[in-house]
C-alpha cells in the first residue's frame, strides 16, 4: 500500500472533543444543554446499530439524547405527531429520523415535517435548497465528514476534478454541491454513466457512494488521487463471521491512490461527529 490513510477515526475523535468543549461552555456559561432526538421506526438491525452509536456518542459529548422507538407498524400520522411534538420542545435542538422508513410511510413527507432549524441531517427541502444556492444551511453529515477529511488532507480543493459516484439525496447530491462550493470541477456519475471507468480515472478526488461492495477496482483510480469510500457493506468473512467492506476494493485502490479512507474507520465515524457538530450549531442558532 502506498496511499496515505485518511484516518476518520482519529479525526472524528478531535471533532468530538471540540464538540464536548463547546457543550461544556454552553452549560457553564449559559446553562444550556444541547439536545438531540433520534427517532427509529421498526427493527432494521443496521439502523439499530447506528442509532445506539448516535445515542452513546451524544451522551459522551455531554448532550442530552432523546431516543424515540416506534413499532414498525406505527402509522405515518403517529410519526408526524411525534415530530410536531419534538419541533415544539425547546429542550430538543436537533431531530433525526433514521432512514430507511417502512414502506407504508412517505419518507419525504416525514423529513419535511421536521423544522428546518432542527434538521440536523440537512435533508429537508429548505436546507437542501439553501445548500444548492450556496447559503448557510444545515449540511448532511456524511458529505460534510468527507469534505472535512479532504480539506484536512489537501488544504484548498480549488480546481481539482472531483467525481462523485452515486446520486442519492443523502450523500451523492449534497457531496457534489459541497465540492462545487470548494471550487472543484464536479462530475456526478451513476449506474447509467457511459465509460464509468474512464470518468473515474479523470478524478483527482473520487467519492464512492453507491452501496455496492468493492465495485471500484484500483485501475479506475488515477495515480495519486484521493479516494473517499462512503460504502459500508457487510459481507460473509467465510468463518461464520461477517466483516465490513467499502464500495472500493481497498487492496488495489490503495496501491494507486495518493490518499484513501479505510472501511471501517474512515467516513463512518466522521458522520456521527458531524451530527454532533450540527446539533451544537442548531442549539447555538436557537439561542441567538
Ligand atoms: N440512514 C443512513 N444514513 C443516514 C443518515 O445520515 N441519516 C439518517 N437519518 N438516516 C440514515
From TrEMBL:
Keywords: Amino-acid biosynthesis, Histidine biosynthesis, Hydrolase, Methionine biosynthesis, Multifunctional enzyme, NADP, One-carbon metabolism, Oxidoreductase, Purine biosynthesis. The keyword NADP applies. It comes from the Bacteria. The keyword Hydrolase applies. Transmembrane segments: none annotated. One of its GO terms (biological process) is methionine biosynthetic process. Residues 6-121 form the Tetrahydrofolate dehydrogenase/cyclohydrolase catalytic domain. GO terms for cellular component: cytosol. Belongs to the tetrahydrofolate dehydrogenase/cyclohydrolase family. Catalyzes the oxidation of 5,10-methylenetetrahydrofolate to 5,10-methenyltetrahydrofolate and then the hydrolysis of 5,10-methenyltetrahydrofolate to 10-formyltetrahydrofolate. This is Bifunctional protein FolD. The gene is folD.
